[in-house]
Design brief:
9 helices; globular; 7-stranded mixed beta sheet; alpha/beta
């Protein structure tokens, strides 16, 4: 039996504004059906949590769920676990899931680190971290999600050859992530040329749906970077 820890590493606001009535309703009707039960002992094969899938991926901090829902529609034979503690983002995702009827998504609305400690070893084929909070002030860098501790957590969960996808429009956080992964024995950056990190149409990012955060970055003159690492 795995001991369930209630300690959360999450730092930040849970909610910015009042939910729209429909979103509030979906928290009562749809969310209980999709919320991952962390009180259970997870099966070694996470596919058992879904209906008729061959693989499972994790997306951490999915914002409004644009990428999560798009990938789930695109890959009906893959199960997706989406993590987003920000209530307004979860509300947007629930609306999108309800609109599309996509059936291969499960959700977690608390801390990602605590969930990763509970999931079984070698159970994921991909982990996505897209536009995470950059915590730009020096004294807050220790709050950044990409850290040796979280890379250890991710490495435990990943199958051989699994991929870690990272996207950010903050140059310093991109450099930080490259440095953190370079100093971790389990992750190898897959890049042979500039198009591998500055073109979202390449490799694992192919068919990338533009998100609100990406649109904001372009509007403010920042160019996103897309990094793909392989678990080795």
């Amino acid at each position: 039996m795995i001991r369930r820890s209630r300690r959360s590493d999450f730092i930040g606001r849970r909610q910015a504004k009042t939910l729209k009535p429909r979103q509030a309703g979906l928290f009562k009707t749809l969310m209980p059906k999709l919320r991952l039960d962390i009180e259970q002992d997870f099966p070694q094969d996470l596919c058992a949590l879904f209906n008729d899938v061959d693989d499972v991926r994790l997306e951490i901090g999915f914002g409004g769920g644009e990428h999560l829902v798009h990938r789930a529609q695109e890959n009906p034979r893959i199960g997706f676990i989406g993590v987003e503690p920000f209530i307004n983002g979860m509300g947007l995702a629930l609306s999108s899931i309800d609109d599309t009827g996509v059936g291969n998504i499960l959700l977690h609305d608390e801390d990602a680190g605590a969930l990763m400690d509970l999931l079984p070893q070698n159970s994921l084929s991909q982990i996505c971290l897209l536009y995470p909070d950059p915590w730009p002030k020096y004294r807050h860098w220790k709050r950044r999600f990409v850290s040796q501790r979280n890379l250890d957590r991710m490495a435990r969960l990943m199958k051989p050859g699994a991929q870690f996808l990272f996207a950010s429009d903050i140059e310093h956080y991109v450099g930080w992530t490259l440095d953190q992964c370079h100093h971790h024995a389990s992750f190898q950056w897959l890049a042979t040329g500039a198009s591998d990190w500055n073109d979202s149409r390449q490799g694992a990012f192919a068919n990338w749906p533009s998100t609100r955060y990406e649109a904001k970055a372009f509007a403010e003159g920042r160019k996103p970077t897309y990094l793909t690492f392989e678990y080795r």
